[in-house]
Amino acid sequence: MSTNSHAYIILGGTFDPIHNGHILLAEALYNSFKQPVIFIPTAPPNYKAPPQTTAKERLEMLKLALNNNPHFIIDSCEMFEENYISTNQSLKILREKIGYDKPIYFLIGEDSLVSLDTWDNWHELFNLTNFVVAMRPGYSLEQMSGQLKLEFTKRTTCSIKNLTDPYGQIYILNFTPHDIASTTVRNNCKQNLPIEDMVDPKVAKYIKENKLYI
């Protein structure tokens, strides 16, 4: 992965398949940070069912959806691994490549934020990355544990501070997620229902031609 940006803005996921909600989120990230957004498709996770398509198919759909947009970069180094790589491991590998001076902003949803303290070595993450949390305005954080609330209160900011802090901040991105999920796309494919309003037309064509998710 190579970029001349001042910061690494990371959007990770299985992208099985990538849908319009992912793209809208990436555009919101780019508009906030004015830095390229790096899509990191992950290896099969150990906390949910594995992807229903191959790494090669997921990568092809990503390429079709991103359509050579200069603001978006794909880093596919993880997705061909057989074993799951935790966020902690992944960020350590990235830090070994780029050092600890460059800011990393790692996107998570509000659902991940409230359960962040269940992640592997979650305290260590604050020494590796900043978090960007895509949250609906007025979202309640009552589900957070006391310890996580403490970290959240200490680290949260609404200003990006010229991208100078390499790690340790939580930045809130007011974003109302598009009501699309990869699960819905896959279910529609199974039931032979349309998916054109949920994914890029080229992705829809690829799914149909390759008989994916049926």
The Rg value, from CA coordinates, equals 17 Å
Helical segment tally?
Answer: 8
Helix/strand class: alpha/beta
Annotated CATH homologous superfamily: HUPs
The CATH class designation is Alpha Beta
Largest sheet: 7 strands, parallel
Order of helices and strands: EHEHEHEHHEHEEHH
Uncertain segments of ≥5 residues (pLDDT<50)?
none
What would you call the shape? globular
Any idea of the CATH topology? Rossmann fold
Strand order of the largest sheet: 3-2-1-4-5-7-6
Number of strands: 7
Structural overview:
This protein is of the alpha/beta class and 214 residues long. It has a single domain (8-179), classed as HUPs (Rossmann fold). It is built from 8 helices and 7 strands. It has helices at residues 20-33, 55-66, 87-98, 110-114, 122-125, 146-155, 182-190, 201-209; strands spanning 8-13, 37-41, 72-74, 104-109, 130-135, 156-157, 170-174. A 7-stranded parallel sheet has the order 3-2-1-4-5-7-6. α2 (55-66) links the parallel β2 and β3 (72-74). α2 (55-66) packs antiparallel against α8 (201-209).
Short recap of the structure:
With 214 residues, this protein is an alpha/beta fold. It has 8 helices and 7 strands, in the order E-H-E-H-E-H-E-H-H-E-H-E-E-H-H.
Ordered list of secondary-structure elements with their pairings:
Blueprint: E1 8-13, H1 20-33, E2 37-41, H2 55-66, E3 72-74, H3 87-98, E4 104-109, H4 110-114, H5 122-125, E5 130-135, H6 146-155, E6 156-157, E7 170-174, H7 182-190, H8 201-209
Parallel strand pairs: 1-2, 1-4, 2-3, 4-5, 5-7, 6-7
Helix pairs in contact: 2-8
